[in-house]
Design goal:
10 helices; six-stranded mixed β-sheet; alpha/beta; globular; Diaminopimelate Epimerase, Chain A, domain 1; inorganic pyrophosphatase (n-terminal core); six-stranded parallel β-sheet
Length: 313
């Protein structure tokens, strides 16, 4: 942490990147870090391959996230919430990575690719780490605290997931003391679903298959098209597969263009899906992991049935 602070004090212009299809943790961590840097007189620019999803549109500082590089001439690069540089997508080809890289992440699969690596797998979220960093740099305020809270809230599934710890809850409590309106953040994120998402969810739950201690569901391009839904509308659908009695692990397969399948895996705390994801070149955490696969959905579903049966038993 001290080395990162020394770098921040030495330089003035910071580029902040994160993974493709950014989630609440990456978005919240990036914005909070940018606001903290701006507060101490530095310049910061957030650059992602993909824009935030609609559920974050009501947060006013979301406009700090850009999907174009423009002419920002960074001196230092922050990579947040990304286990490896490939996770940030095609934008890595537009960035000069000979400049100092500060890698901040909470995934156990992190490759420690930075010049400075702050990787804490026992933390629920990258936002928890950014909280500690900013506390050493400046006085937090309601705005910074709001985006840190978004990161922790979403990566713990509203404090439901096994990665929720006493540390997560203490940090969240301290953030609320800065004036964070916890109920409003939950309302904005979890209770503003478009009708297309709800109708799509109905179709997905119709195709869920139940096995001994595990479940599998999928969403195809045609299902999205039929309801006028977007892939982002499927976020958190995988969690429904784990709400079923006696189910210890679940998988959701999302069909993308070009024969690409995106698989999300979830499990209860006594079962690890991380190793299964790593078999396909993916990664994540013990109870929340994922990977991408090129091939036939039915073939992959059959493979996953065998592999999930193995790990739950």
């Amino acid at each position: 942490m001290k080395k990162a602070i020394d770098i921040i004090k030495k330089y003035n212009k910071f580029l902040i990147v994160s993974h493709k299809y950014p989630d609440g943790d990456s978005i919240g961590s990036q914005i909070a870090l940018a606001l903290g840097l701006l507060k101490i007189g530095k310049k910061a620019y957030i650059y992602n391959e993909d824009p935030p999803t609609d559920r974050y549109s009501r947060f006013k500082r979301i406009n700090l996230i850009h999907t174009d590089k423009k002419d920002f001439d960074e001196e230092v690069i922050f990579s947040l919430d990304s286990a490896e540089l490939n996770r940030i997508g095609f934008i890595k080809d537009e960035i000069d990575f000979t400049k100092p890289i500060i890698n901040i992440d909470h995934h156990i699969s992190n490759k420690n690719f930075g010049d400075i690596n702050i990787v804490k797998p026992y933390y629920s979220s990258t936002a928890e780490i950014i909280y500690e960093l900013l506390n050493r740099l400046t006085e937090l305020d309601e705005e910074i605290a709001t985006y840190l809270y978004i990161g922790i809230l979403t990566d713990t599934g509203s404090f439901r997931y096994p990665n929720t710890t006493s540390h997560s809850l203490r940090v969240a409590s301290k953030l609320v003391n800065y004036g964070v309106v916890a109920s409003q953040i939950s309302e904005f994120i979890w209770f503003t679903d478009p009708p297309a998402r709800i109708k799509l969810l109905g179709d997905v739950l119709q195709n869920i298959t139940l096995h001994d201690k595990f479940s599998i569901m999928y969403v195809t391009k045609n299902m999205l098209k039929n309801h006028g839904a977007k892939e982002e509308d499927t976020n958190e659908f995988v969690d429904y597969g784990l709400t079923i009695k006696n189910v210890k692990a679940t998988a959701m397969i999302k069909e993308r263009e070009g024969g690409i399948l995106k698989v999300s895996l979830r499990s209860r705390n006594d079962v690890s899906v991380q190793e299964l994801a790593s078999e396909y070149g993916g990664g994540g955490h013990k109870t929340a992991a994922g990977f991408t696969y090129k091939g036939d959905l039915r073939v992959l579903k059959k493979e996953l049935e065998k592999k999930l049966e193995r790990i739950v038993n």
